[in-house]
Design a protein that fits this description.
Two copies of one chain form a homodimer. Chain A is α+β, with helices and mostly antiparallel strands. Chain A is built from seven helices and twelve strands. Chain A has a four-stranded antiparallel beta sheet. Chain A has a four-stranded antiparallel beta sheet with strand order 2-7-4-5. In chain A, helix 2 (about 130-140) crosses helix 3, helix 4 runs antiparallel to helix 7 and helix 5 (about 200-205) packs across helix 6. The longest helix of chain A has 27 residues, at about 140-165. The radius of gyration of chain A is 19 Å and the shape is globular. At the A-B interface, helix 2 and helix 3 of A face helix 2 and helix 3 of B. The structure holds a DNA duplex.
Chain lengths: ~260, ~260
DNA sequence: CGTGTGATTGAAATGCTTCAATTATCGTGG
DNA sequence: CCACGATAATTGAAGCATTTCAATCACACG
C-alpha cells in the first residue's frame, strides 16, 4: 500500500493556486495566528513550478512513515495533517498538527524522522526535496524565508515543551482549544462553534495524557461553563477570554 | 547590569580558533552524539571573521533575556548554556542545554524568544545577526548548513516532546543522563563518572518535574544499582546499557 | 566558622492512569 | 434512508505517581 493510492494529483493549470506561505518574522509570537505571506510572487511561482498538488479524500491516510526514504517536502493547502513519532515501546506521540500554510517532511539524513497522516480529507503541495534544495541554493532569499519558517516551527515546538512540561490536564486542553480557535477553517466566530476533526486518542497523544483524561477534562470545562459539547467533535466556546484564565492559573487547580 | 559585565571579549588573533560547527545530515538521529563539521574551511573563516569570542567566568550569568532586542547569535565553544522561558505564572521551563558546538539566539521578530544563561564558566562565539544574515544571502551553501542545523534543533525539540509527553520520572532522568554520557567533556568513560554542573532545580525545570522528585528518582536509580551519587553533582554510571533498559520499559514501572 | 543555598527525605494530598463497563457516534452496506 | 456494527467517548472506581509542605542534612563560600 503505497502512499499514492489515495491521492489524486491534480493539474497545475488550476486558475488560482493556493499560496505556499512562510511565516513572518513579525507575526504574533507564540500564537497559531493567521499567517502572512512572506514569499514574493516570483518565489511563489518558482515553488509552484516544481510542486504537485495531492488530494487526499479521507482521513487516516498515510502520507509518509518514519524511517522511509525522504524524497518530498509537503505544504498543507487545506485539511489537517498529524505529525507523529513512535517510542520504542510503540506508543504514539503526536508532535504537531499541520494546518493550512504549514510545511513538513524535511528529511533527516535522507530519511523521514516522523510519520505524517491525514486527520481528515486534505490537499497538499508536494515538492521534490532535490529540486527544492537546488532552488534554495540559487535563490538565497527564498532559502532565508524557509529558514525563518523553520525557526518558527522550532519556537512552536518549544511552546509545546512549555505546555507539556508545566501545565496540568485542564490547562493543556484549554491551550489546545485556544490554538484551534485561531483558525477560521475550524472555528466559527459568530456561533462560537469549534469543529474538531480529531479523536480523543489524537488529542491524548498530542497532550501527553490518556484519552479518558481528555474526556474528563472536557467534562470539567463543561461543568465550569467554559465549553459545551454539542457532540464529541463539535464544541461551543462561549467565552474565549475565560478559557485563557484557565491557562493563566498555577499548575494546581485553584480552590474556589 | 548588562550582559557584558562578566564577559571578556578575547582577541580574534588566537592561534587556533575553536570550530563553529553545524550538525551533519548524516549524524546519528535522536542522539546528542559527537557532531561532524559540515562547514568548509572557507565558510568557517567567513563566520569567524565576523565573530567575537566571549568568555564568561562564572555560572548563572545572563547572556540575554526573553523579550530583549536581538542583535547577536551565539555558538558554544565550551561550557553549558541554559535556554529557558517563563510562563505567565512566572514558572521557568528549561527548553534546552546548549553544549559545545550548539547554536542559539536566533531572533524572533527581532526579539529573543528565550533567556540564555551560563550554567558554569563558558566561552562563546558571538555573531552579529545583521552580518550573519547578509553573509547567508551571499553564501547559499553556508545558509543551507545553518538551515540543516536548525532542522536538527527542531528534531531535538521534538525528542524532548516525546520525553515530556510519555515518560515517567525515572525514564526522564535516565534519558537525560544518557544524553550527557555522550559528551566526553562531562563523562569520563574510563571511570564511568559523570560531572553535572546542574542543580536539581535546573534538572527539574528541564524534565518538567519538581526538584524533590528529581532527588527521589536519583535515590531510586541508586537503590537499583544503576547509578551512584558520589556527591549531588558527581554521578557514577557503571552500566550505561542498563540505564537504557529503564527508558525502554513502559510508562508504568515494571513489576519485579 | 557561620550562613545561606542546595539536596534529601518524610508524610499527606492531589492528579493521572488504568481497568472495566456503558453509552454515543459515525460510517457502511443493505 | 435506515439499521447495524465497529469504533469512539464517557463515566466509575481503584491504584499509583507526583506534587506540595515541612524538616533535616550537606556543602560551598565568604
Amino acid at each position: 500500500m503505497t502512499r499514492l493510492n489515495e491521492s489524486v494529483p491534480a493539474s497545475l493549470t488550476k486558475a488560482r493556486l493556493p499560496e505556499i506561505r512562510a511565516r513572518s518574522f513579525d507575526c504574533e509570537r507564540d500564537q497559531l495566528s493567521p499567517i502572512e505571506n512572506l514569499l514574493s510572487r516570483k518565489q511563489q511561482s518558482k515553488l509552484q513550478a516544481i510542486a504537485t498538488i495531492l488530494d487526499y479524500q479521507r482521513g487516516n491516510s498515510t502520507i509518509f512513515s518514519e524511517s522511509e526514504d525522504a524524497h518530498f517536502v509537503y505544504s498543507v493547502i487545506s485539511g489537517i495533517v498529524r505529525i507523529s513519532r513512535h517510542s520504542e515501546g510503540g506508543r504514539r506521540q503526536v508532535l504537531a498538527f499541520m494546518l493550512p500554510g504549514d510545511l513538513f517532511g524535511l528529511p533527516d539524513a535522507g530519511i523521514y524522522a516522523n510519520t505524517a497522516e491525514t486527520v481528515c480529507p486534505a490537499s497538499l503541495y508536494r515538492v521534490p526535496w532535490r529540486q527544492l534544495r537546488e532552488t534554495m541554493l540559487s535563490e538565497p532569499e527564498l532559502q532565508l524565508n524557509l529558514l525563518i519558517r523553520l525557526a518558527f516551527d522550532l519556537r512552536q515546538a518549544q511552546r509545546r515543551i512549555m505546555i507539556l512540561g508545566q501545565q496540568n490536564t485542564l490547562q493543556k486542553l484549554a491551550s489546545f482549544l485556544l490554538d484551534f480557535v485561531q483558525y477560521t477553517d475550524f472555528y466559527d466566530v459568530r456561533n462560537h462553534r469549534l469543529t474538531l476533526p480529531l479523536t480523543r486518542f489524537d488529542l491524548g497523544d498530542y497532550l501527553g495524557i490518556a484519552p479518558e483524561t481528555v474526556a474528563r477534562a472536557f467534562a470539567k470545562l463543561e461543568l465550569a461553563g467554559l465549553v459545551r459539547r454539542n457532540s464529541p467533535r463539535h464544541i461551543e466556546i462561549p467565552d474565549v477570554a475565560a478559557l485563557r484564565q484557565v491557562v493563566a492559573g498555577g499548575r494546581r487547580q485553584q480552590r474556589p
